[in-house]
Amino acid sequence: MMERARVRLAAWAVVFVLSACASAPVTRFHSLVPAEAAPAPAASASAVSWELLPIDIPVQVSRPQLVVRLADDTLAVLEFDRWIAPLGEDLHTAIGERLATRLGPPATSPAGAADAAHWRIDVEVLRFDSAAKRHARLTADWTIRSKAAALTCRSTIEEAATAESVTALVGAHQRAAGRLADVMAAALERMA
């Protein structure tokens, strides 16, 4: 009887030690800003005075964790896959950097904002959809406005993300953000 108690106690001790040694899940951080910068603008590109206002995103995805639509159309919050910064700010950085490659750097002085040739870009994201093993979809209303003119549009951009990894899904969102910035830059170049 005493021998059985020692064996049980030893078994529980092993289980306790092994559970204490188990590693916790690793939190991975993701960004919409690609690791590689977009190609520099052509030498003939003229600098445009512009600024990108803060970007509004849907409250459903405005959280540190990635929210992913599963095959059965339910949503999953990926606790250990997180955005490196608030999603609206990270999207602002990604789009702003891409715009800068096309249009030149944004205006930095308040005097530029008073100029009639200064353009303000306002973006409201209506959908930021991450569908596991399918696609990343970005739908946004955007307005480009100066004192003399304005243009309001809606863009829906979808990028394939058929691989199983979250990294592939984030890469698809990076490409979608880049394409949205390219559409806005092209419109602004025509208007300016």
Quick structural overview:
The protein has 192 residues and is an alpha/beta fold.
**H and E string:** HEEEEHHEEEH
The helix-and-strand class reads: alpha/beta
The count of β-strands is: 7
Radius of gyration: 24 Å
What overall geometry do the principal axes of the alpha carbons give?
elongated
As a percent range, the share of strand residues is 25-35%
Q: Which strand order do you get reading across the main beta sheet? A: 2-5-6-7
Poorly predicted segments: none
Number of helical regions: 4
N-to-C CA distance: 90 Å
Q: What descriptors fit this protein?
A:
7 strands; three-stranded mixed sheet; alpha/beta; 4 helices
Topology overview:
Layout: H1 2-21, E1 28-30, E2 50-52, E3 65-69, E4 75-83, H2 87-103, H3 110-114, E5 119-131, E6 135-145, E7 150-160, H4 166-191
Parallel strand pairs: 1-4, 2-5
Antiparallel strand pairs: 3-4, 5-6, 6-7
Helix pairs in contact: 2-4
Task: Write structural notes for this entry.
This protein has four helices and seven strands, in the order αββββααβββα. It has 192 residues and is an alpha/beta fold. It starts with a helix and ends with a helix. The mean pLDDT is 86.
